[in-house]
Amino acid sequence: GGNVRAITSGGYTFDMAANGVLPAPDTLALFDDLDLLPEPAAETAKRRYLFKDGGLHALPSSPLRFLTFPLLLPSEKIRALLEPFLAKKYNAEESIYDFVKRHFGEAVADLFAAPLVLGVSGGDAKLTSVDALFPRLRTLEQTHTSILRGLIAQQRAAKKGDSPARRLMSLPGGLGILTKTLAERLEDDIQINSGVQHINRDGDSYQLTLASGEVISANHLVVATPAHITAALLADVAKDAATMLAKIPFVDMRVMVLGYDRVDVPHPLDGFGFLVPSGQQVESLGVLFTSSLFENRVPDGKVLLRVLLGGHRQPNICEVSEEDVLKIVRRDLEITMGITVQPEFVYDIRWPKGIAQYTLGHRNRVNDIMDSLPSNLYLTGNSYYGVSVNDTISQAKTLAEVLAGRLEHDITPSCSVN
Q1: E strands within 101-188?
Q2: Residues 6 or more apart in contact with residue 127 via CB below 8 angstroms
Q3: How does pLDDT run across 70-121, given as a tens digit for each residue?
Q4: Phi, psi at 29, each rounded to 5°
Q5: Backbone Cα Rg of the chain
Q6: CA-to-CA distance for 357 and 193, rounded, in angstroms?
Q7: Cα–Cα separations (whole angstroms), residue 404 to 225, 391, 407, 411
Q8: 147, 136 in Cβ contact below 8 A?
Q9: How far apart are the C-alpha atoms of 206 and 216, rounded to whole Å?
Q10: Coil, strand, or helix at residue 92?
Q11: Is the Cα dihedral 178, 181, 185, 188 positive or negative?
């Protein structure tokens, strides 16, 4: 289930959606339970670029490098570095743009906030809730007042071994090995790829009609589909929740996976990739240097790029033909990276309504949805409390613990719709 899948085609191995995770306790525990050994990304993956004013600029990795960053004026750099002295706690919900602006100044917000949110959720930084999408930033503020002080404290803790180093990791063969292994471990206990057509409720139990015509009955039901699909499934069993779920916005995402001969790509590909702010005459949201992140993903002498499109900037991107999207991408890659040749390998990934948007008020909306559910109906997935793989795993573990306690004396089957 879900979007985490890996593909091997033409000698190239790549992920359909997330291509890595940062180390988190619940994720590491799941890897261990499944006997999966994660592999760290290359050290150069820490380097991120921003395309602006016709060139790729490495993002500053320290305050000292921030001082030499060419895309900000001296006064704008000084304002940002004064954040520890000017920062104040703020308790009301605000957008990511306003949060960054309040801490680091308008210039930093204009330059970094929009591409950051586009790279994570495809959303609009001025409409996206920092409390919902990046609660860690709010926690840093509440704990340290200053975001810079909080980040420095985290770096020191990581060096002392008090917290895990935040280095991207994946699995040999792609992150999709995680869901593949989960399915293999559970295949004797669950029905895989059995589409749910309808859900009814009879008293305190649920009846799920599958595409095969089979009907499954259960006293507890977990629905882990995206909010807009969940809304349709629950229309007859939790009408109030379904109405609110249908109002959670989503954006389309498109990923063009392109393979090239190494000699045809002028850039050294010495990093994770780059993001593109608006106003740069480039339609793509960003490019990931996939072949530079993990070993054994491409044939010898080849490189692989993942070009991201869509989000709030291109709301209908999934309806555009592959030929036209490839024209857009080739033009963008010539502008940003100097690539002029046609790719030797192309894989087109479309995610219509691919990512939920955590707009202002999202947390209250989710609380209202959860409060409206019957006590034996549960929702999980990345539409509610975090869009990342780590968030989804943590939510699933918490819910599983709750269910285990409730089912201890209940022998009636339970179902999960995924």
Answers
A1: 169-170
A2: 95, 312, 357, 359, 360
A3: 999 999 999 999 999 999 999 899 999 999 999 999 999 999 999 999 999 9
A4: -65, -40
A5: 22
A6: 27
A7: 21, 20, 5, 12
A8: no
A9: 8
A10: coil
A11: positive
